[in-house]
Specification:
65 residues, alpha/beta, Rossmann fold, three-stranded parallel β-sheet, 3 helices, 3 strands, globular
Length: 65
């Protein structure tokens, strides 16, 4: 079963490794939410995985998801 939504607090290496693995396996979640205080980290995620919905989110919102 593939998750419909996944969230990451931090858009660094570990998030990219997970997303890359899911993409390679054809098991990419329908929606991905990444929260990070570094806009460059979010830009890298969006550039690498632009086919999924990836958006910046405040940490409070991430905690509620």
């Amino acid at each position: 079963m593939t998750a419909k939504t996944i969230g990451f607090i931090g858009g660094g290496r570990i998030a990219r490794v997970f997303l890359g693995g899911w993409r390679k396996a054809g098991a990419m979640p329908a929606k991905v939410v990444v929260s990070d205080i570094d806009p460059q980290a979010l830009t890298r995620i969006k550039e690498s995985f632009g086919t999924v919905e990836i958006r910046a989110s405040h940490l409070r919102r991430a905690a509620r998801s």
